[in-house]
Amino acid sequence: MIRYGILGFGHHAVKRMIPGFAEARDSQLAGLWRRNLDKARENAREFSIPHVFETAEALCASPEIDAIFISSPDALHLSDVLLAAKHGKAILCEKPLGMNTGEVEQMLAAAKAANVVLGVAQNMRYYRSLALIRQWIAEGKVGKPVLAHSQFAYSAERSPREWIYDPALACGGPIGDVGVHCLDALRFVLQTNVTAVSTLAHSDAESGAVESYAVLALALASEAMATVTVTTRASYRSLVEVTGEIGVILCENGLTVDHPIEVVLRKGDQVLLSETVTNADAYGLMLDGFAQWTEGRGDYLAPASDGLHNQKVLDAAYASWRNGRREAIS
Length: 330
Prior knowledge:
The chain has helices at 11-23, 37-47, 56-61, 77-86, 101-114, 128-138, 174-190, 282-294, 304-323; strands spanning 2-7, 27-33, 51-52, 67-70, 90-93, 118-120, 145-155, 194-202, 213-220, 225-231, 233-244, 248-252, 261-267, 270-277, 327-328. By secondary structure, the chain is of the alpha/beta class.
């Protein structure tokens, strides 16, 4: 049993992580820290969390904690990871890992020096929808994939995360926030990497220096091509689709945990296969996957060494938006 402490307990912890810990078998939420100590104590009482820590340092130093789950704003991830590594704790960090590739490389070096595991909380790698799409592609049900698309749309108008449009705290707008989920989902199901990216994006008065919607065109090592479309100016929608030489996989709202979803295999107008799955247990599976990896009992699907590639794509995507050129991924 791995005892987790959440560093940066907030809206995401309440909405997603508390239910995830309730379903997990090898993971226990043992402590938390947040800047407002009164709210931290209130959270601990409400969710029966044994330990509240007055400082982030105290959380990371505690013998009652085995692993640190970092869910602070993006710009704080580097210092939080370095703090956890300093105290020899296993580290599971929210996406995007950092503000840029250099920060992620620092994180990896610190984790290696401390001999601790470092993972990305890329929960969607534990989605049953993506596992099924990946399986069907591997089985050759669509032939060789040639095109793929993932979309994530939501409205940020009433978002409780007040920092998401602050460039001092957020890696970016929806590209960094949910675009990283989309590109990672495509990499996962297609089992490939991104070799180049071109970006079109738009900012507005509310989003300020960061984008409010964007389109990313991705060249893939598999020779397929993909697009990622994201916005904080629309009703919720998430989509994954893959077009192969002999078939198409469609999954409307394929990146949701809130209700069952249908994964469909089509050839022309004909539905060849249709399967309904749920992603509701993904957070618990992610926590347990990381716990087992920490204990040396299995592999974790989203190690930070892999997350480094996603960060390189984000860096290239933002560079492309600024300079109007296609950016290669090293």
